[in-house]
Amino acid sequence: MIEDIFCEILKGERKADVVFKDKDFWVIKDINPQANIHLLIVPVNHFDSIKEIKEKDEAMFGRIFQVADRAAIEAGIDEKGYRLILNEGQDGGKVVPHFHMHLLGGNKLGPKIVN
Ligand code: 5GP
Predict the structure, then answer these.
(1) Annotation says 38 is catalytic
(2) Which of 16, 20, 44, 12 is nearest to 30 (CA)?
(3) I need a surface site. Which of 6, 59, 64, 78 has the fewest CB within 10 A?
(4) C-alpha to C-alpha distance for 98 and 6, rounded to whole angstroms
(5) Which candidate, 8, 25, 46, 47, places its Cα nearest to that of 103?
(6) Are 40 and 100 in contact (CB under 8 A)?
(7) How far is the CA of 27 from the centre of ligand 1 (A)?
(8) Hey, which of 2, 4, 5, 29 would you mutate to test ligand 1's pocket, going by the most ligand atoms within 8 Å of its Cβ?
(9) 16 lines ligand 1 (CB under 6 A)
(10) How many angstroms is it from 94 CA to the middle of ligand 1?
């Protein structure tokens, strides 16, 4: 794992292309896009992993899909579709230790979700 880049972005210590933010989530463009549109949905509060999400956080995390929908609408890909990916832990391929969800679209994605 590398240092928490997303906390640095949220604190304004590192530049990012922010496409949307509200009290709970920021949506930023991935620095190394894997599709024509590759956004990262990042909670403002730091969660190292899914394990840290407790009952009190469930309503907030329930909103992540509304945030994804809004980001997809703003990116103009809500009708054609997109893929949400959440990497967890080492085998899941997680690199940045701050919970985040990937939103990929803007082109037809391959049939495989793992390789
Ligand atoms: P993970 O593999 O942890 O699920 O995904 C981390 C993502 O963060 C990767 O897709 C990577 O390209 C992206 N990323 C790494 N460093 C930065 C950065 O400094 N800024 C932005 N916007 N994205 C980053």
Answers:
(1) no
(2) 16
(3) 59
(4) 7
(5) 25
(6) yes
(7) 12
(8) 5
(9) yes
(10) 9
pLDDT one digit per residue (tens) for the chain, 115 residues = 456 899 999 999 999 999 999 999 999 999 999 999 999 999 999 999 999 999 999 999 999 999 999 999 999 999 999 999 999 999 999 999 999 999 999 999 988 877 6
Cα 22 from Cα 5, distance rounded (Å): 19
Cβ within 8 Å of residue 8, ≥6 positions away: 14
| φ and ψ of 60, to 5 deg | -65, -45
**What number of H helices and E strands is found in the chain?**
4, 5
Ligand 1 pocket member 30 (CB < 6 A): yes
